[in-house]
Write a structure and sequence with these properties.
Helix content is 45%, strand content 15%. The chain is of the alpha+beta class and 177 residues long. Bound molecules: zinc ion.
């Protein structure tokens, strides 16, 4: 619970206001969170609000640059069937990279953003990246979902005849390697 550091009151109201920031010649409107003490009427920004506001600014800049915002990174990673640690192995950036991206503490590079988008679009790209990262890929567990994204956690359709050609293609590629 937030507390006013001046009068020690816990009657603190959390408020939001859009703040305009200049970025690359554009003006971005970013929702900023702050607190108002209802007792002494002091306005202040609590530590967790500073973190939240930093994330909002980072997200606004990334949206402007056409990059995944923090929540979209998390959604993309889950869609690829990866844990945060696996995603860091696959796409780089260091062991804790994805937990930092997803908390909005750090922005992914434009290059990494492109690679994630390629992996989402093309299952074979993800497959190759998984193999390179040393993450075991069981061909029988390679499943194409409706939106053409490989979900490694979904096993049920592995032996369905409609996936046979996909499985053959995978094995063929590996024979060349
Ligand atoms: Zn106060």
């Amino acid at each position: 619970m937030a507390q006013c550091k001046v009068c020690k009151s816990e009657d603190v109201l959390v408020e939001q206001a859009n703040e305009e920031i200049s970025y690359k010649g554009a003006t971005l409107s970013v929702p900023m969170t702050y607190s108002t003490c209802q007792n002494c009427h002091r306005e202040f920004i609590a530590t967790e609000q500073i973190i939240e506001n930093d994330k909002a600014i980072r997200d606004a800049k990334k949206a402007h640059d056409g990059l995944f915002i923090a929540a979209e990174i998390a959604a993309a990673r889950k869609k690829l069937g990866l844990t945060q640690e696996q995603a860091s192995l696959v796409f780089g950036g260091g062991r804790n990279a994805f937990s930092k991206y997803e908390r909005g503490e750090v922005s992914q590079s434009a290059a990494m953003d492109k690679l994630i988008k390629q992996a989402l679009k093309h299952p074979m790209v993800l497959h190759d990246l998984l193999v390179e990262a040393g993450i075991a890929v069981d061909k029988n567990h390679l499943v194409y979902t409706d939106d053409n994204v490989v979900a490694y956690s979904v096993f049920k359709a592995a032996n369905d005849h409609k996936y046979t050609s996909v499985k053959n293609q995978t094995m063929l590629e590996e024979n060349y390697g």
